[in-house]
Amino acid sequence: MNLKELKELIEMLKDTDVSELEIERSGVKVRIRKGGDVSFHTAMPRMEYPPAAIVAPAVAEAPAPQAGKPVEPAKTNQIKVTAPIVGTFYRSSSPDKPAYVEVGDVVKKGQVLCIIEAMKLMNEIESEAAGKIVQVAVESGSPVEYGQPLFVIEPMS
After folding, report:
1. Do 36 and 83 belong to one domain?
2. Residue range 67-116, pLDDT digits in tens
3. Given CB 3.0 to 4.6 Å as the disulfide criterion, which of 1, 78, 94, 151 pairs with 73?
4. Is residue 121 situated within a structural domain?
């Protein structure tokens, strides 16, 4: 689906009573809701962990803006928690729930830090070490890539 087709769909919906439209074509899913909410989802092939290779979808898309800030541990003992899979990053279990962790929180090894949704499966990402959260590098609802930094933890002694 290209930009011209998307604009035509939006124009057609303006003069109707339809409040939401969802279309899937060639692995690309587009949902349009009146009120300006437009979302794109690319169907990802099933991948084994760790992935041998990541294959790009056949449909060309504009690159998604990178959310959050670059992650550079200030101290050598700080730990970067990275995304083990490709998916959508969520800081809480639902939009009306508080985030699992905030900057300054002390976490235990194995404590849930966030969720990454991949192929409609919610994957809990756990802390690799006990320590204090010093940085959250991704905004909730943003797409993440394999190996992308999510958090920086300062280990507890």
Report:
1. no
2. 455 555 456 789 999 999 999 999 999 889 999 999 999 999 999 999 99
3. 78
4. yes
Contacts with 155 (C-beta within 8 Å, 6 or more apart), sequence order: 77, 78, 79, 129, 130, 131
Helix H or strand E encompassing 4: helix 3-14
Within 10 Å of residue 154's Cβ, how many Cβ atoms? Answer: 17
Residue type for 149, please? Answer: P
pTM for the model: 0.53
Domain co-membership, 36 together with 94: no
Residue 107, judged by CB atoms within 10 A of its CB (0-12, 13-18, 19+), counts as buried
What's the rounded Cα separation, in Å, for the pair 80 and 78?
Answer: 7
Return the SS3 of 70.
coil
Number of folded domains that form the chain:
2
Within-domain flag for 70: no
Rounded to an integer, the average pLDDT of 112-122 is 92
Nearest to 90, CA basis, from 139, 133, 42, 127: 139
Residue 71 belongs to a domain: no
